[in-house]
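2024-03-11 09:14:02 DEBUG pipeline.ingest accepted 1 chain
2024-03-11 09:14:02 DEBUG pipeline.ingest length=668
2024-03-11 09:14:03 DEBUG pipeline.predict start
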Amino acid sequence: MGNGRRGRSKRLNGVVSIAMPWLIMVLLPLFMLLSPFIGVDALDRTLVDGATGSDVVQAVIAKVDASRIAFGDDHRFLRRLAFVETSDGANSSYSSGGLWGIQQSHLDTVSSSPQLEELRIAIRAAFGIDWGTVTINDLGKPFFAGLVARLYLFYLEISGTAVIPLAGDIVGQARFWLTYYHSDVGGVSDTEIYFVEQVDILEEREGCKVNLDIFFVLDGSGSIGDTDFSQVRQFEHDFVDQLSIGPNDNQVGTIVFSDYGSVIFNLNAYNNKADILSQILNINYPSGSTNTADGLCKLVRYGFADGHGARPTSGAVFRIAIIMTDGKSNQESSECQWNTLQAAEAVHELSPPVLVYAIGVTSSVNDVELNAIATSPDFVTYINSFDQHIIQETQESHVDEVCKRATLPADTDEQMNGTLDQNETVRYHYQIPVAGITLRVCISVGHVVVYGSFSVPNPNSAFYDFVLEFGSETNTSDTETCKNRYIDPDKIPRPLPPPNTHPSSTYEPSTGGAPTTTTTLAPQPTVVPSTAPPVVELTDKVVYLSVVGGAEDNNFVLNGSVGDSYPKPIISSVTIPATTSSLRVAPVSSSTPPATVPPSVSTTDDALLIALSAGGGGLLLVIFLLLTLVCSVCCCCCVRGRRKSVGVRQYKLLPRHADTSTDWAEEV
């Protein structure tokens, strides 16, 4: 009996040893053929234990911002903290405390403080994190460490212990860090000077990297007064001081309105920062009435008009307008014959579109006008006075918004051309049509990587839902190469709800005065509605793209077209439900017509597309499937020859591991 079993076992092993190579030879090419269509190439390194680097840190912050959890403004301190504490994980101080150098006392406070209960509930709902089970060893995952750091900083504020100084007060932030956060004392890296030096290095590396054509439209009416108008000038001065100025960098223009609007200088008036800063501080205070309409009229007719220095947005240039006013307009524009609402509509009808931020100062502002002027309600800011500290805080938040989160709106069937230097990034977003969208990216020179996300406005190498890469670091392209990706809106998770607000305390570092309170919006992805006439039905879902240059010279062309513009053979796809680690696709409804069943995100190279469309790929696919079936039957027959009964096993698909693009199966 025993010899018989051993004989059958040997025969079975022999058959399996013969069949397995054939299975591998069949299934591996089949997987390689199908993998571009399955679209499971998402990556989230913020959940990888021990992941390091600036992209990881920035991805953590982007995820926190996109969650719409109302932490308030940290004045760039969270980003600076990771660099100062651990050099984003590069220095020897990186340990179990993670990238933010978390201490056990920080974690204990975050896990147990009653004052943080509402935020803990919100985080559990958004990310599935139960703080009762989190230990110091979990903080090797960057997202966990970043959340603990942000929660602890928020606790310091709401408990009345301390408030984070403004970003411009680097010395104040250094003192805050050393007093309330940093634990080690006595080393070279345990001083305020060290903090300031590290922040200077970081700001040099990660300053404002977008190209702006930005116009400031400033209220110079009599209700402001000469003293407060000096604060308005200072707002623009400090904003511009953080930009690189030049025809290939950022350009600035200024309009002041009172009885009428006046163009102080156009976008192409100055190519030198010192000249612009001097001109801003010398703007005369006009006094008079509040003719907001004529200020906007001048913006439409002269600000971004041809011949006045505005650059085409197809060259990856943002067009921005920042309007600051303290009251309700009280007359129409005689030049344009518009009232304020009509003038605001004219601004929004400009093509290429302009992102408009509206800042209302004091309670005298007209809410209807302010919301009409801004691109959307998310672009409106209210501040209660011209207090120097509040103006500075507002200026910093707008610089961060424009430089770190704003994305260029792109319309379907509009071609976007760009030239990138090495490590330069330009960001776009498309509002996804009901029929879906096909993204087509072509490059002719260089090494270009396109990261895509459905949840954060600035995807990067550490966090994305899909990626398209052309060339490599060692093999740049010098011939035109194109790739396509179809996105089905039915397989993208619902967008996040509108953000909450919470009182954000501020204080004056130089005087140590008591905190004052102003209401600010929680950070959020910047979604700019398209201003082009609607030609297709749109969903409320958005795809964000970061296009990154990898070589010294990089040229690319981006185009988005409605629907699946490059039809492919219908292939059953794997769909993965949304998880806390990555937003992924949802199951396809059974009512969906077969023609719209392609995976939510699918990639094809032109060569593969041509081969499949010609029919050869379809025949090859049939052959692969037949061979797979034959091999499977052979193996099943061998196994059935065993006297041992084999039960059917079922498996369910699990979310892909955080540091790979692989989906794992678990036996049920």
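2024-03-11 09:14:41 DEBUG pipeline.report Residues 46-205 form one domain.
2024-03-11 09:14:41 DEBUG pipeline.predict end
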